[in-house]
Fold this sequence. Notes:
2 domains, single chain, alpha/beta
Amino acid sequence: MATLMRAARLHEAGKPMRIDQIEVPEPRPDDVLVRVEACGVIPNMNAIFSGALWNHLPPLPASVGLDASGVVVALGARARGAKVGDRVYVNPFLSCRTCHYCVAGKPMLCSEWALQGYFGYVPASQRLLADYPYGGFAEYITAAPERLVKLPDSVTHEQAARFGYLGTSFSGLRAGRVGVGSWVIINGITGTLGVGATLLALGMGATRIMGFGRNVDVLARLRALAPDRISTLVLGDADIPEWVRARTEGVGADMLLDCSGRAASAEHTLAAIDGLKHGGVAVNIGALTEKLQLSPFQFMNRCTEFRGSNWFTTQEGQIMAEMAGAGIIDLGAWETRAFPLDQVQQALDLVKTRPGGFTNIVVRPQL
Ligand SMILES: [Zn+2]
């Protein structure tokens, strides 16, 4: 095997990456080496790499790239649970194993969590990023076997490279107890999180899916997925709670999945919460930062909930892979735009244009 590999590395926050030749990593004894076939590019990536947000970038220069899918090519001496040749998605979520939450068996709540190839939650997350210093915009990365989602043959690497945002939507829908017969509101349905959430909610048995967004073409494509189950509203065209109640026997929806992004307005989120039925759950997965003027009195009277959900477990990733393999979710709805590694900046520029959630932008390091 080659001893050198190409990796897109961030040398300075907010500046274009450089393609560097670095050594192919040796997996640590408990880890595996994965040959990256595809790595996803997501809307928030440029903002994260700008270094201007709250997140803590790995020490620079850093090999970056969040959602890698590929093939296991080598195992450390003590690595278990994977074998050479496995087709896998690498869940980049890193937890410390020793904090209050990890010891309690809740690693998704880890106080030092980090995302491999992306950022850490707090400064102390750097030690986790140092254990796995390779991102998916590289020919090879290392990973722990317990973070590998085994892919059915029918799931392509390009589709699996979208699992990060798909999994975030899946975990959010599960937090909202979506199941057979659920009535679900998706705020921000036209984006990467929203389109994935729609495919999943259909597969999870939701019978009424009500989404809001601005991109009229994407809204029409969403309705076409299941015209009897999906209705869409162009934001501003109607009063949201009234529009929802008109589609839910006058009572409202069971669940709101709020995919509003960091810079979105809280106004639509508040209106959508008003469209919940008694006992309904609102779950935010889009990182909306504007403060909400909530009425605790209304939450008490209606027994409603508002909560957040961050990323997803590897087990949830495996369930999604199985759902895709069994044809319960249709990942073929995405259109992939693939870029070779030396065009990673073009891929990051394309995602800035917000092409909509049906577009799946990936970097293919082996091209
Ligand atoms: Zn922890």
